[in-house]
Write the structure tokens for this entry.
Amino acid sequence: MAEYETCIFGLKMALEMEIKDLIVFSDSDLLVHQTLKEWITWDSKIVPYHCSLLNLANKFRSLEFRHIPCARNVFDDALATLSSMIQHPDELVIEPIHIHLQEKPAHCLVVEKSPDGRPWYSDIKEFLKTGSYPPEADMTAKSFLRRLSSKFFLNGEVVYKRTSDLGLLRCVDKDEAEYLMKEVHSGVCGSHMNGHLLAKKIMRTGYFWLTMEHDCVVFVRKCIKCQLHGYVIRTPPPTELHSMTAPWPCSIWGMDVIGAIDPPASNGHRFILVAIEYFTKWVEAESYKHVIKKVVTDFLRKHIVCRFGVPETLITDNAKNLNNDMVDGLCKQFKIKHQNSSIYRP
């Protein structure tokens, strides 16, 4: 931020001297590229300084920013060193930079209402309804409207967009488009997907407008939560990760319990004990009223060891009915490695 403050003070001094044409040299790569709008300003602390700098730049008739290497900026460094050594008089007052922060973010969308308040599909709707053209349309516009209207369908007062699979998507106006993007992207079931996926999901929901993909991309770029959490550097796991690929069939089995199931089955069973073989993805399952340690031990002996042979590794979660003395004794008897995984990844 120090580079921004220095540049702002320099531009203010130039305006006080009534300078209209100016070339600014700086060794700050970040300042130059962000001011030229070649780089996007992500840091919320720098955004107010960036806006203040752009406002000052608009007051010049001609303003150019150029980047120079630090090795060629020795003269400025020397001036800064001399300035720090000079005792400034007490009556010298340096005016502070006033930065205004908004409490709530402002969102702008690309979907706009027409000047007369009509939705974007009003001409298409009128053509499908009465076959008439807009009064100011020329021959090229009329031909384009005829081709475009062939892809739409009018049912009463509602306009639908025909899809390649003979489906119909309801056309929406600006207000409905804003509501749809907000609900699908960050609503109750929103997953904060990117702009292209957001447009596809809205189309799968059954809605359409002409600029929806571009509008969704712009909307996602202005989502505060996406900006805060989208570029978080992922830290490595605290412990080393081990691959659980099976080298041959029936060597590694994963086992877990499904339930309780409500309502229960006709025989009163509410739990399903499931085992899956990691190489062939073969599944063994059995339902029970209660999954206790004796049930797990009998299931291992009857459905795995006796049918497929002794496995090399058994993977379960940390549940007590899957980690007990009877299961450990059976694994010790047949020399089976018993490993634990996270709760939701058995």
